[in-house]
Amino acid sequence: MLRALGLGDLLAGVPALRALRRAFPAYEIVLAAPEPLAAPAAASGAVDRLLPASAPGRAVPERLDWEGPPPDVAVDLHGNGPPSHRLLQGLRPGRLFAFAHARTPEIAGPEWTADEHERARWCRLLEWYGVPADPTDLRLPDPGTASPAPGAVVVHPGADSGSRRWPAERYAVVVRELRRRGHRVALTGGPGEDGLLERVVAGAGGGAPDGGLDVFRGGLPFDRLGALFAGAAAVVSGDTGIAHLAVAYGTPSVTLFGPVPPRLWGPPPGTRHVALWHPGPPGDPHGQDPDPQLLRIGPEDVLKALFDHPEVAAP
Questions:
Q1: Quick one: angle between helices 14-23 and 118-128, nearest 10?
Q2: How many CB atoms neighbour CB 204 within 10 A?
Q3: Which of 68, 98, 127, 286 is most buried when burial is the number of CB atoms within 10 A of its CB?
Q4: Which H or E run contains 99?
Q5: Cβ count within 10 A of residue 177
Q6: At a CB cut-off of 8 Å and minimum separation 6, what does 282 contact?
Q7: Mean of the per-residue pLDDT values of the chain
Q8: 311: number of CA atoms within 13 Å, CB side?
Q9: What are 52's strand-pairing partners?
């Protein structure tokens, strides 16, 4: 299975991965994906082994370090081809599950649909090949370890691209008000985002000697990150992998959308996960500057969504 993308992509693909696990219970299931995703892939319960594979951005890897005989089945969960098709065809699989593309006419798969939710897309691909798939099968089991900040509201200001990164000063307003109301706040960031976290901390009034603000810099190992999210009161973030992690653990969340509407990448419908978005023309999800639709969301919108949430308890 090829899905050499990010954490959010992996989590959105969990329903498809589990469908393949059920369809091929006696097979070794190998996922070609970036090496840091080995732990969340294992947590899905659908993957036996991770084959490290990555490329800059969201590109298709140039090659796969596959050893052994050709796989019986290869599944393209990366894109609509043809580069990802050709990469898997190079392994000479017995069968290849993939979307149809004019430049790979030998693949008689279903047609790619751009305006489709990511979880539903890959389940539809498998259904076309006779593999039943449930797009709601996305929850991860409880990690079974203690949270480093139990009961905190997790705020994650980072994102892979500037177009999906809400301004740090607005996150600071949210953190400051949460603290004023007595909530414990856990601020998280990935590698290279320490400066962003410091701007949020400074704007929120600095560190908290009473322990009301925990700052986790540099990217937590997945076991601690999972425990933090599973034990959180709520999660606030942009449209990034962290938002999918909140959904995977069933933690109430408020997600800020900009260039991509929630109907394509958002949480399941219901009150537990709130998607904030102002409709408008589609933007560039990989752009450098914050998307105009994202900037239409104010701190008051986020705070209202949190404090009106039926599952977010008062401190």
A1: 20
A2: 25
A3: 98
A4: none
A5: 17
A6: 259, 260, 261
A7: 95
A8: 14
A9: 33
Distance CA 262, CA 277 (A): 7
Question: Quick one: tokens of 218?
Answer: 């540099």
Min mean pLDDT across 100-114, 207-221, 260-274 is at 207-221
- pTM to 2 decimals? 0.94
Runs of H (alpha helix) within 141-298: 168-180, 194-203, 222-230, 241-248, 262-265, 292-295
Residue with tokens 């990989």: 286
Which are the contacts of 228, defined by CB distance < 8 A and separation ≥ 6?
147, 148, 149, 152, 154, 186, 188, 216, 220
Percent helix, percent strand, percent coil in the chain, to nearest 5? 35, 15, 55
Q: Which H helix or E strand runs over 208?
A: none
pLDDT in tens, 30-50: 999 999 999 999 999 999 999
Residues pairing with 250 in the sheet: none
The average pLDDT across 232-244 equals 96
Neighbours of 69 (CB within 10 A): 9
> At residue 4, what is the residue type?
A
Average confidence (pLDDT) over 166-178: 97
Residue 213 bridge partners (DSSP):
185
* pLDDT tens per residue, range 104-144: 999 999 999 999 999 999 999 999 999 999 999 999 999 99
What's the token pair of residue 235? 């999660």
d(CA 54, CA 33) in angstroms, rounded, equals 6
Structure tokens at 191: 């590698």
pLDDT band at 208 (very low <50, low <70, confident <90, very high): low
Burial class (CB in 10 A: 0-12, 13-18, 19+), 287: middle
